[in-house]
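Exercise: predict the fold of this chain.
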Amino acid sequence: MTENGKYEYVVIGCESAGVGLVRELTKAGKSVLAVDKSQEKVELLEDEGFDAVIADPTDPSFYKTLDFDGVSAILVTSSNDEMNLKIVRTIRGVSREVFVIVRVSSQKLKEEFETAGANLTILVSDAVKLAFLEKIKRVETYKKLEKLKSILESLKGKKLGIFTHDNPDPDSMSSAYALKEIAKQFDVEADILYYGEILHQKNRAMMNILEIPMIRAEEADLSTYETFAIVDSSGPGVNNSIPPDLDISIVIDHHPVEKVVAKFVDIRDDVGATATILTEYIKEMKLVPSKILATALFFGIKSETDEFKRNTRTADFLASAFLYPFVDHELIEKIEGPAISTETLDILGTAIKNRQVYSSFLLSFAGFINDRDALPQAADFLLRLEGISTAVVFGVVKDTVYISARNKDVRIHMGEVLRRAFGDVGSAGGHAHAAGAQIPLGIFGETSEKELLAKLITEAIKKRLLSAVGIEVQT
């Protein structure tokens, strides 16, 4: 025993579950005492170097030898419900304060154990269910990877074009870069292709600092590629300018969508970033990510989830934890540190000036702009205004109206709202908290007078949006 019998955890019962707990807790650096009536079981644990004692866990005198002030919890792991109930009652006869977690075989007995003094109960059925669900996810990922590997093996020695969505962000860029690195394992030469511009200062910084090889699709000879992949978007024309006649073999995305056609499709709306999906691939393939790749993917997840505050799921935290030891945090600081551009500041100022508020819904025209990446920045900023739960900012870039929306109203799914409002005249979608849309400028008429055009656009977007969220405005 440790000095003065001080242990963080006392594990009662040395069956397989108890032994597993002793091993894992000790591995995590915890001081653990195993307790069982069986001399054979105790000796086996002692042979492995663990602290274990032979004792009757229903005898109050045993617990009087423990220093309860240092015990975080007593874990009762026996498969015998009757025995476990006696143990809980015995412990409570000695101490009312010590935390007790106990294994219970059925829901019916749960209340009886809690009445006896158990702080937490572990239902065997729940544990089995969770174990199965975890394995099912592993199986699904494994099957998807086998399909992806098959496609990449068929491309050996050939070229693969990997498209991001237009004006790629960190999630899109890092996902494409990860797929490029995975393809390299199969002797497939892959290029990252994009349409639009990379104007957001952090996006430019990420590309330049990490030296991610990005190629403008307009400048590439698309006929040299055997086939194409799309990441962070689900198909030609969905938030991108990809020609509709291209052969798309691989689609990987985290935005909910229907009717995706490709040889390989992995679309999950239960993750906060496409980079999370690619990180799972790397982990399951037992690849060790380079410093640059890990930093890119980590920043992609962090950026897409707004510092893990928006639409973040367990998978995103697990992926980030896997990447963390390989990440260069000095590079992250450099990426996050670039100064805001003059145009971004002007767009933000215009959005603030032109804001229209309807209850807690804010709408603003940011003007005729070049940097569409400033729109989500403006929407994020305006969402911070007191009393605002939804902010929608839109601007004209060349011949297209771009819309960026941010939302914290749990009653509204912003992606669905934008699809209802603009799905018939453009492309739209996204998540409940963040969404976007693109509308061809041509639907607003042929007028070239900017002041009139701005008024037409604002009125049309306001009418469609407010109708989609059920807000009536007096005219």
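Check your answer against the key: The chain has a mean pLDDT of 90.
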